[in-house]
C-alpha cells in the first residue's frame, strides 16, 4: 500500500480566506503550467468558490510531514483531487486522494467531486 500524501495549502487569504473550507471538503488540484513565478505551481479550486489557494512550494511554508508542490508535481495528474483535513486562517493541510478513493466518492451523485 502506498503511503498517504499530504500537502500544505497557502495563499488562502488572497482569495476567500477560510470561508469556503470545511473538513473533508473536496479540492481540485490543477497544475498551473503558465505560472510566471513557479514552474511547479499547483492551484487549488473548490466547487462553489473557484480558486481558493495554492499548494505550498516553499521551505518556509511547507508544514513538516506534508509534501511541496515540487515533490508531488510528477506524482499527480494535470488535474487531480485532494480532501481538506485541517485548516486555520492562513494554512490548510489536505490529503491527496487515490484513484480508489476518487471512485468511491464519485458514487455519491451529490459529492462535490462530481461538479468540479
Written description of the protein model:
This protein has 116 residues and is mainly beta. Strands 1-4-3-2-5-6 form a six-stranded antiparallel β-barrel. β5 and β6 form a beta hairpin. The chain is globular and about 40 Å long. The termini are far apart. The model has no long low-confidence stretch (mean pLDDT 94).
List the helices and strands and how they pair.
Elements lengths: L5 E5 L15 E6 L10 E5 L3 E6 L13 H4 L6 E9 L4 E5 L2 H8 L10
Name some characteristics of this structure.
6-stranded antiparallel beta barrel; mainly beta; 2 helices; 6 strands; 116 residues
Q: If you average the pLDDT, what whole number results?
A: 94
Helix amount:
10-25%
User: Low-confidence segments, ≥5 residues, pLDDT <50?
Assistant: none
Cα(first) to Cα(last) distance is 28 Å
Q: What structural class should be given to the helix and strand makeup?
A: mainly beta
* Strands, total number: 6
- Number of distinct helices: 2
- How would a crystallographer describe the biggest sheet? 6 strands, antiparallel, barrel
Order of helix and strand elements from N to C terminus: EEEEHEEH
Beta-strand content estimate: 25-35%
Q: What strand line-up does the widest sheet have?
A: 1-4-3-2-5-6
Q: What characteristic shape results from the CA principal axes?
A: globular
Query: What gyration radius follows from the Cα positions, in whole Å?
Result: 13 Å
Amino acid at each position: 500500500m502506498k503511503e498517504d500524501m499530504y500537502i500544505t495549502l497557502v495563499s488562502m487569504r488572497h482569495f476567500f480566506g477560510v470561508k469556503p473550507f470545511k473538513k473533508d471538503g473536496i479540492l481540485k488540484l490543477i497544475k498551473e503550467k503558465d505560472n510566471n513565478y513557479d514552474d511547479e505551481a499547483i492551484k487549488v479550486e473548490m466547487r462553489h468558490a473557484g480558486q481558493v489557494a495554492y499548494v505550498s512550494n516553499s521551505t518556509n511554508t511547507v508544514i513538516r510531514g506534508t509534501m511541496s508542490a515540487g515533490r508531488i508535481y510528477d506524482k499527480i495528474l494535470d488535474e487531480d483531487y485532494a480532501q481538506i483535513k485541517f485548516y486555520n486562517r492562513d494554512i490548510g493541510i489536505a490529503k491527496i486522494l487515490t484513484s480508489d478513493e476518487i471512485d468511491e466518492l464519485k458514487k455519491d451523485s451529490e459529492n462535490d467531486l462530481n461538479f468540479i
